[in-house]
Amino acid sequence: MVHFSILALATSLLVPGVLTAPAAEPAVAIQRRFDGTAFNNWSEGGSNIRCVNGPGGSFTANWNSKGGFVCGKGWNGQGARSITFTGTYNATGPGYLSIYGWTTNPLIEYYIVENHADLAPNEPWTLKGNVTSDGGTYDIYTATRINQPSIVGTATFQQFWSVRREKRTGGTVTTPTHFAAWKALGMNLGTYNSVIVAVEGYTAKGGSGSSGSASITVQ
Fold this sequence. Notes:
Helices cover 5% and strands 52% of the residues.
């Protein structure tokens, strides 16, 4: 389970390039765009993390760190849609390649994990069921984050997870299928805040960090 979250939605336009977050002051940069090219780059103070905003729906990530980060591209104010992406992903340690987003009222952080390295080491996830979608089977989990950073500040909130058994780095993800499966299990989302194709790495409770590289294009 992730030990960090996107803290806020900035309204400034980010030009293509590299955003580096200082250790003492996590940074957020999001383009307020609705066409799949909104770039999100957040770090909680790790070193050797480099996320680069490319043209259109493309971005790259390279990291070797014990700090946490999330970077990716997608849509603001949306969530229920089909998302197609391609690329490469190679990682070790805790981390994911996922469809990632938030809702408000209720405040939910959600993941549809397409590929991953170490999956939630030592984390208290609760298995709720599974769903078949887009040629694969996903196990559904919930988790609770207590007094942790969120898009509305420090808060207690639920995380919803769909984790694909057949790992892949590319394809189409039909998010409404997951949302309907979650709802049938009593896992209710709120108002969509954002959804992105995200690469994420973090430090596990045991202290191990992550490393890897990714090059992703959102169609």
